[in-house]
Model the fold of this input.
Amino acid sequence: MAKAKVAVLISGRGSNMAALLYAAKAADCPYEIVLVAANDPDAAGLTLAAAEGIPTFAHSHKGLKRAEFDQIIDAQLRRAGAHFVALAGYMRLLSPEFVAGWDNRMLNIHPSLLPLYKGLDTHQRAIDAGDSHAGCSVHVVTAELDDGPVLAQTPVAILPGDTPDSLAARILIAEHQLYSRTLAEFVGRERHPDWLLNQVREAALALPQADEIVSHGMPCFGIVKGKKFAYFTRNHHGDGITALLVKATAPDEQAMLIESDAERYYRPAYFGDEWVGIRLDLGDTDWDHIAGRLRASWLQVAPKKLLGLMDIADQF
Ligand code: GRF
Done:
C-alpha cells in the first residue's frame, strides 16, 4: 500500500523532523517524508534533511505579509504532493487560510501537557508552577495557537534542580518518540474501515431525509422509505477493498471515471453500469469530492418534492 506523503515544516534545529525522518525509514512505517521546508534558510535541519535525500525548500518570511508567505509555503507543499503537514519547531503563527487548507491534515508537537502552557517558555512555567510533571503533546492544528484536539501526550517527571534546559532536553527524548508514533497512527486511521465509514456516514446523513440501513451486509444510505444512493463496502466477498458505491450521473460515466483513474474507480460487481465504486482506502481521499459524489447520487434518486426543497436550500 502507498505510504502517506508528509511534509515537515521547521525553523531551526529540526530534531523532531529528524525523528520523523528516521522513523519513516522503517519498511512498515505508513508515511514518508516528501519535503522539509523552513522559513529560515539557515535552519540547521535543512542540511540534515538534504543529506538524507529529502527535498528541501527554504524561504525567509522577512518582509512578507503572513498570508503572502504562507501561500508560498502552501504552494510548495502541494507541489511536493504532501497530504499531511507536520509542524516541528516551526516558529510561525499561521494565517487562517493556510490552516483551513490543511484542515485535519496538520499536526504540531508542543513541549507541555496541553492545555497547560501554550506558547513559549513552557519549561520554565512548568517548573515555576511546582508541577510534578511536564511533558509533550501532539495535537491537530487549528487556527488558535497550540490549540486543537490533543492526539497523544507523554508526561515527563520534573527532577529536583531541573533547569528549563535540562527539562527541555529530557522532554525532547519523549517528543521524538511520541511524534512519529502519533503521526503514524494519524495517517493510518484514514485507511481504517471504521474511520472511513464514519466519514461517509457524516456526509451521507447530512443530506435531506437520508437514513442508514444494512443491505447485503453492507451499510447503505437511502432516502427514508425511498431509494438507496450509497453503499459502503468493506472487504465484500473478501476483495480486501474499502470503497463507496454511488450512482453514476450519466450513462457512460462509470467507464469514463475508470479510464481517468483505474486505481480509484471501478465497476462494482453485481451492480451493473449505473453505479461507480470509489476506493476510500488509498490514503489520499478528497472528502469534499466524496461529499459532492454523495450529493450527486442523492439527486439521482430523490423524489421531486425533495428536490424542490434542495433548490430552495441552495438559494441560501
Ligand atoms: C521542540 O521542543 C518542539 O516541541 C517545539 O519546538 C522544539 C523544536 O525542536 N515546538 P526541534 O527543532 O524539533 O529540535
Remarks:
- The mean pLDDT is 94.
- Residues 10, 12-16, 88-89, 109-111, 172, 175 surround 5-O-phosphono-beta-D-ribofuranosylamine (CB under 6 Å).
- The first strand starts at residue 4 and ends at 10.
